[in-house]
Amino acid sequence: MMRYSVIEKKFPREILLLKATPCKWGKCSFCDYIHDNSMDINYINEVNLQALEQVTGEYGVLEIINSGNVFELPKETLEAIKKKVEELDIKKLFLEAHWIYRSRLQEMRDFFGVDIIYKTGLETFNESFREDVLKKGFNYKSLEELRGYFDSVCLMVGIKGQTKEMIKNDIKLALETFDHFTVNVYTENTTDIKPDKELRDWFQDEYRWLEQEKKCEVLWVNTDFGVG
């Protein structure tokens, strides 16, 4: 498991994949990342502190991801991150949170005292596919409401049941609404949700230009950020 990497393109930063307690939502039908979760707090902290030792602060920006949400990291891990931020004069953090944590986002801003870019795994703006198939649990009423909480969305493409029209609309709305978004090309895992190879191939041909789009980061495979 690679837990540290450096992203050098578009939004240069260091990135850490940390362990955490179980995801409080935990219902996403396509997600087996939660297998990295644990209830052994001492072990979680041991793994995370080792990963944190690799951070250099070279870009002044650090992204923290885990198999869930930043709010599920143990207190000791959060304090270690804060100490590293202060020691290395890190000015910005990228953090992840699910919609259920929308009312708590300010807590991390207050705790770390630096600029925070909040990412959320929306997967698609198509409500029916998002909720009936992917089981995401996002009940926002408008894009304005969603944008009011989160700075960036993560989209997923190439899933059985998804359509080209859905993907086209997702990319359009992301470009219009957010200053940063990520597109993940779905990789088959241990869940019952399967990839659509034809759709993935079409996306890779049709949207290769996203590599030059300054707002967008594309993960053609799920380890493109160097962690996982």
TrEMBL record:
Specify the Elp3/MiaA/NifB-like radical SAM core domain's residue ranges: 14-213
Coiled-coil intervals: none
Any one Gene Ontology MF annotation carried by this entry is:
iron-sulfur cluster binding
* InterPro entries associated with the record: Elp3/MiaA/NifB-like_rSAM, rSAM_sf
Lineage: superkingdom: Bacteria
Name of the protein described by the UniProt record: Radical SAM protein
**Organism expressing this protein natively:** Oceanirhabdus seepicola
Taxonomy, top ranks, is: Bacteria, Bacillati, Bacillota, Clostridia, Eubacteriales
